[in-house]
Amino acid sequence: MEIEEKHKKALQILNTNDSISKYNLEQLVETCCKSLANQEPSQKCKAKFTSHGNTFALIQLQTSLLYILTQFVRHSETPEDLLSYLTTDCSIEQEKAKLLENYYGLWYDRMRLQFINIGTHLPHVTDVRWEVGHLVKSNSLDQPDGPLFKLSLKIEKYDAVLEELKHEFIEFTCTSQELQDLVYKLKDIVRHCQKLASGLSSN
Amino acid sequence: MEEVDKIIIDSLRHLSCDVERGITSLKDFDADLVVMAITSCLQAINPQLKLPRKLPSSMSARIKFASSLAQQITEFGFKGDMGYQTILYCNEVEVRRVLMFLLERLPKEANAAASAEPIGYVPKVVKQIEDTLRHSLTKMWIPSEALHFGARPIEHGFLVNSFGNSVPLHGINLIVADETTDPETASFIPNVIEQCSTPRQLLPSLLFPPIDYSGMQNWQQSAVSEPLARDLSRELLNSAAIEKLDSPSAAGDRKEYINRNSPQHKAEPLLNTLKEEKESLDEMQKAVKECEENLLKLKSQREQEQTILKELVAKVKVKNKTMAVLSNEENIVKLENLIKKGENRLVELANQWDEVQAPLLEEQKALKSSETRYTELQTLKKAYKEVMTDLKEKTALEQKLILKCKDLNNKNNRAAYTKRILEIVGNIQKQNKEIQKIISDTRQVQKDISNLTGQVDRSFTLSDEMIFHDCKSDESARKAYKYLAALREECNGILQAVSNIGQAERELRNLEEQIETEKNKDIRDKLDKVQRDLTEMKNEIEVLMR
User: Fold this and answer.
1) Is there a smaller number of Cβ atoms within 10 Å at the N or the C end of chain B?
2) Rounded CA gap, A115 and A73, in Å?
3) Minimal CA–CA distance to B198: which of B166, B171, B164, B162?
């Protein structure tokens, strides 16, 4: 993991600038964590941020904190690692470093979840709905037929235009034979997974 | 001690402590490695402990961290001398004692688990895949609507149900003001969060900013240095002319001119009539088309009816002919005869068929029997093939297992360890025997000494009695008695001196041993190190005071 020197330097504001009180720092770190966890920072927080005297220094500090937190979450570093980095490499005061460590520990999982949710994926099947139908008589043949299964797979995918999660249905019909074939194939996949889970390394 | 060191290093490697391959004894351990070994042992003993695995760079922080480690070790019941100096200025003997103590304290199950921990990148990845598969199969299903961002936390990570919330990796170039930026410009740059149009754009932008080509100055240079092929002056003139034409005054003149000379107002009635004519023409064309379609339909209907009529006429003709034939009686008789002949012919043919069929049936039976043999042969061949494939698979499996067995032998030096342990036990037994021999020798010597002292005492008392008996009558005997007493005292003194010498020698040996142990501790080096650290700390404090 490499963190640019300019971000380390930006953190020095914490040591030199007395105007950044503990409360202000808390607000700032919370804003950073919330932004990385895709949560709206509170209005109170924003107001505090804009009304502060040295806005430029705060913006620099916030940017550096965002970069550092991103890199630490990306490399799955523990809060203890962050603490040792802040105290030894950046020589931040113990109290302020502890505060950062606490927030990092609190928001780690939520930030990590956002990292998981980056990327382009194929739609995921999340649910199945089904109906069974029976053909009593058709136009061409005076003969009953069926059962006929009507399945619809509920899929979830990201809509890039609306920028939100979208549900869609893939609908298809099949006979009982085809349904059995499908079920057997799905079971086969599960069995294969179970076999792998029981001893992939031993094979 | 080499064996002990090997065992310690091996166990440390099993505890996911990165001991390099080249290190074979505890002599080569530096302070960082000692800290790593101790922390990994402490974490294995108490998994709730969370300790950094490296020494911090600042000296005061180092001492603080080392003393906290030392305190934890003493809390576990370590009885030897333990302080920050044992960790920072590592002495081989002390480190060995501490590590042996910690390794003995390791829980058995954890040790087993640690020994089962795979080594190397690929086995670790395989283990992770196994774990996630197991989790995904064992964890209860939860509908994705009930999950936050399609995933739920499990022991080491997340179990993902759906990636429906995944944002494609589209970042933006974030503008970050730094020391080089002009302060006036910097005041206009919004903060990084506000630069993103959506909140979810922030992470990709922080992680992977898109490539910025603005810094490619060599492109600009090449564009400048490239000679201009076109005639710029002519282009400029042309563009000026076009601008003139397109100017608002020129456009107004042109419109007036067109309005004056256009025959539009004259042609309007003519155009109207033309339109009407066109519409009537279209209607008529439509009517013609409809009529043509009707005609085609009627034609096809007529053709169909004609074919039906032809078929009916042919049928009627056939029926008339048959009726004509059947009306004549001779014809009927002829037909009956023909039928009879046909029947007879049929019987003959059946007989002939039987004659032909009998040998063929026999032949078929024979062939069938041969066929069964053939099928048997085929099944045998199949069975042979199956057995052969089975054999091949099993030989392959055998080879695999042999390789695995070799690997296992290589990996787990269990046999080697037991061999070594047995050798060590044998050595100890030998040494024990020798010690027993020496003890019996010393006992013998002690016995001899006590015998001799007894003899001396007895001979003295005997001679004492004898001389004392003669003392009353003989003057010389009196003198002899005095001499004897003096001799006895001298002898006792000599014996005492000998035993004192022995004691002094023993003390000397003890002292020599103590000197050696003190020498091993390298106190002078340690003191030098402490002095250096002290000066460093003083410097740090001075820096902090400033």
Assistant:
1) C
2) 8
3) B171
Cis check for the bond before B210: say yes or no (omega within 30 of 0). Answer: no
* Residue A89 contacts residue B58 (beta carbons within 8 Å): no
Instruction: Place B354 in a pLDDT band, splitting at 50, 70 and 90.
Output: very high
* Within a domain: B93: yes
User: A63, A75, A164: best mutation site toward chain B, by most B Cβ within 10 Å?
Assistant: A63
- Signed CA dihedral, A18, A19, A24, A29: sign only: negative
Domain count, chain B: 1
Contact B206 A70 (CB under 8 A): yes
Which residues on A lie below 8 Å from B403 (Cβ)?
Answer: none
Q: What is the dihedral of CA B211, B212, B215, B220, to 10 degrees?
A: 100
| pLDDT tens per residue, range B376-424 | 999 999 999 999 999 999 999 999 999 888 877 665 567 778 888 899 9
Q: What percent of chain B has pLDDT above 70?
A: 86
What domain range is B34 assigned to? 1-105
In this complex, which of A60, A74, A118 lies closest to B177 when CB atoms are compared?
A: A60
Q: What is the pLDDT of residue B224?
A: 52
Q: How many inter-chain contacts (A to B, CB under 8 Å) are there? A: 149
Residue B100 lies in a domain: yes
User: Alpha helices, DSSP H only, in B328-413?
Assistant: 329-411
* pLDDT reported for residue B346: 95
What residues in B contact A199, CB-CB < 8 Å? 130
Nearest CA of chain B to the CA of A29: how many Å? Answer: 13
Which of chain A's residues have a Cβ under 8 Å away from the Cβ of B65? Answer: none
Tokens of B150: 């399609």
pLDDT tens-digit map of B417-471: 888 889 999 999 999 999 999 999 999 999 998 998 888 889 888 888 888 888 8
Yes or no, beta carbons of B143 and A121 under 8 Å apart: no
Provide, as residue numbers in chain B, all residues whose Cβ is less than 8 Å from the Cβ of A116. 149, 151, 158, 160
pTM of the shown model: 0.43
Q: Residue B521 pLDDT > 60, yes or no? A: yes
pLDDT of residue B470: 82
CB-based contact B167 A81, cutoff 8 Å: no
| Cα distance between residue B162 and residue A156, in whole Å | 7
**ipTM score for this prediction:** 0.81
Residues near B139 by Cβ (< 8 Å), separated by ≥ 6?
B154, B159
- CATH classification at residue B79: 1.10.418
Q: CB B186: neighbour CB atoms within 10 A?
A: 18
Question: Which tokens in the block code for residue B404?
Answer: 């695995």
Q: What does the DSSP 8-state code read for residue B148?
A: B
pLDDT at A50: 52
| Chain B positions in Cβ-Cβ contact with residue A66 (cut-off 8 Å) | 192-193, 202, 206
Measured CA distances, A6 to A67, B18, B50, B205 (Å): 11, 32, 30, 18
The answer to whether residue B142 is domain-embedded is no
Question: Stretch A63-92: mean pLDDT, rounded?
Answer: 89
For B61, the closest chain A residue by CA position comes to A88
B312 in a structural domain: no
- Residue B485 CA to residue A122 CA, distance in Å, equals 116
Q: Which residue has the higher pLDDT, B133 or A151?
A: A151
The CA distance from A109 to A38, in Å, is 12
How much is the mean pLDDT over chain B? 82
Tell me: the pLDDT tens digits for A30-44?
A: 889 998 988 877 665
**What residues does A174 pair with on adjacent strands?**
A149
Distance separating alpha carbons of residues A149 and A134, to the nearest angstrom: 9
Sorting pLDDT into bands at 50, 70 and 90, what band is B503? very high
